[in-house]
Amino acid sequence: MAQATQRSTVPAIRKDRRKAPWPIEFYRSAVGKKWVMALSGVMLMGFVVSHLIGNLKLYLGRNEVNLYSEALRDMPGHLLPRTLLLWVIRVGLMGAFAVHIHAAVTLTQTNHKARATKYQSPREYLAANYASRTMRYSGVIIIAYVIFHLSDLTFGSGPHNLRGDAYNNLIYSLQRPWAAAAYVIANLALGLHLTHGAWSMFQSLGVNNPRINAFRRHFARGFAALIVVGNLSFPIMVQLHVMEPTCSANRTPKAQVAPCARAIAETASKITAGK
Ligand code: HEM
């Protein structure tokens, strides 16, 4: 009996976790998570640059934007079924977005556990700059923005949306002052996130040489500034009425109906009201 009591007080020995394949074992380490964060970050940076380049077509007019939007769905011509390649890229980006967030959250949890005291000393706190201290807040704003942005434009939940008319859909969306403000706030948060992210990814990948540290800083700030200035120009131009919805005669076949019908109906109702 006494023996049984004694045995029950012995702490259970934790069995070693079974070894997973090496990519998973690597990801379980802090270094692996940092690599995954950096590489998925590079993919997401590639996306924001190409997205900005595509969005700059807004300055070329509705026809160019709608042709571009259709061309993305038609990539790579007749070699694959329509939208297949676009979906492969979308799934890749969603994967990058998911692992980026997972690695960030789990790394933060590990850091918190490893730290003897929960809070940093005032000295440590000051040493970390504003962008690095606010990564999780800017990250949350970006996630919220992407959800809004996709439901607003890509899935077309707004009343202003017409499938195939990306140009007018965006202009109608950004004409709402609260939506324009949301774009401005989110892109400022994105700029802050990129300033630290584009700098620290070099460190995560082991590139930390005093000779290139100045380049790292300039690259990160320049990259973030380019994205922020480019992206902010759209809501600002729409709010200033430099960009207006258009109803040109030169339209892509799919994009003809609703905005023009709406414009015609509005004009017609004005005429009727004037009578
Ligand atoms: C002011 C800046 C921006 C403008 C004007 C803009 C505009 C657009 C437009 C017109 C579309 C296409 C909607 C359609 O399917 O017809 C789109 C899609 C998208 N945008 Fe943006 N965007 C901006 C910033 C951003 C940012 C900062 C992010 C991410 C951090 C982002 C993420 C996306 C994603 C994930 C899609 C879906 C792409 C797809 O359909 O595969 N956008 N955006």
Q: Which term fits the overall shape?
A: globular
* Helical stretch tally: 12
Strand element count: 0
* Element order: H for helix, E for strand: HHHHHHHHHHHH
CATH superfamily: Fumarate reductase/succinate dehydrogenase, transmembrane subunit
Task: Please tell me the total number of domains.
Answer: 1
Arithmetic mean of pLDDT: 83
Strand content: under 5%
Topology-level CATH name: 3 helical TM bundles of succinate and fumarate reductases
Explain what you see:
The structure is a single chain. This protein is mainly alpha-helical. The chain has a single domain, classed as Fumarate reductase/succinate dehydrogenase, transmembrane subunit (3 helical TM bundles of succinate and fumarate reductases, Up-down Bundle). The protein has helices spanning 2-9, 22-28, 30-55, 62-74, 84-114, 122-127, 130-133, 135-154, 166-174, 177-204, 210-239, 257-274. Helix 3 crosses helix 10 and helix 8 crosses helix 10. The protein starts with a helix and ends with a helix. Protoporphyrin IX containing FE binds at residues 48, 51, 55, 69, 90, 142, 146, 149-150, 153-154, 166, 170, 183, 187, 190, 231, 234-235.
